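Sequence in, structure out. Go.
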Amino acid sequence: MKKLNVTFAGTTDTTGYLFSLVKSLSAALRCSEYSACAEDIVATSGFAFRMWIDSATLCPSATSIWEFKAQKSWVESGGLICDYAERLWGEDAVEAERRQLAIEMIKASIDSGTAAVAWDISGCEWGIICGYDEDARKLLTLKIDGSEGEVPYEKLGKLDLPILSVLTVTGRSGKESAQILSDTKKLALSHLRGEEWCDNAKGIAAYDALIAFVREKLTDNNWNLEYNLGIYAALKWYAWHYFERYGEVELAELYRGIHTAWQAAYELKRTRDVTDAAVKVKLIEHLEAAKQAELRAMELMEAVL
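Output:
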């Protein structure tokens, strides 16, 4: 049996809802030779800027309806080299082959000292595969809530929502930080403009979808709203700190304000009855302020690309 010592200690999550893929990836990197990339990767992969909203019910699954295989190129945009294995709906003929490929990738990554990130380890969320037991034919996992678990080899990709998606980091590309910064802005803009595939409201349009839901459809103090506010508030913190770290003063200040507005909306949901008319107004004000600041951030990024 081989197991890496991986924890979420040191991974900033301002709400407890940081998107599970990048929370898992950041933790896996922090506990490996790639620790210098652990915080940056949330922004350089573009995830700090991604928003997906189900305008009908705010269903949490909207955050997981995008082109999974794109994560390889998105993470590699941040200067890393990755392996990736996937098996989606309607691909039963290659299920065993893809699972075996994923298992070999996972074992190789763990043997080299870096945990893998996989879909559905945490109950329809991403989690970490930090070890394996070849004799028992099982994978050792760390769930997004910090609890440990096990997945038999034959169940990988066949859990609560039977999709296989496994990402491992295998090296660095040597990409310069200036080029990474430029490409991060390109990824951010591509998403915010709505160019990335998703079945739900996405990018800057997600603001209007969320605001409309709060104004017109919010009839109870539902958890789905907390989930959505919590994910995006936590992600915006990484955009702010990434730009601050690389001397992008105006963008850093804008994203500081964007994070503050999302965080305030999240705290309002946590502490007040959001069905109250006055609370709804305040919640919408926070979201509108974040939207206007992010529109300005888009203008700044467009001006230099």
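Check: The mean pLDDT is 96. Residues 277-303 form the longest helix (27 residues).
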